[in-house]
Amino acid sequence: MREHLLAVDVGTGSARAGVFDLSGRQLARCVVPISVHHSLPKHMEQNSEEIWSAVCEAVKAALAESGIGAASVLAIGFDATCSLVVRDHHGRPLSVSETGAAGLDTILWMDHRALAETEACNATTDPILERFGGRLSVEMQIPKLLWLKTHRPDLWSACGQIFDLCDYLTWRATGSAKRSHSALASKWGYTPEAPGTPPIDYLKKIGLGDLMERAGLPLQSEPPGRPIGRLSTISARELGLDEDCLVAPGLIDAYAGTVGLFAAGERPEVPLSSEAVLIAGTSSCIVRLSREPVSGAGCWGGFRDAAIADLWLTEAGQSASGAFLDHIVSLHPFGGIPTKARHRAILDAIAEHLAGEGPDFGLPISVLPDLHGTRSPVSDPFLTGIIAGMDLDRSELSLHRLYWRSCVALACSIRHILDHQPRRAGAPRQLLLAGGLADHPLLAQLYADATGCDVFVPADCDAVLLGCALHAAVAAGAFPTTAEAGRQMRFAMGHFPASPTRQAALSRDHALLKAMMRHRDELTLLASPRIAEPSATPLAI
Question: pLDDT for 271-281, tens place per residue?
Answer without folding.
Answer: 999 999 999 99
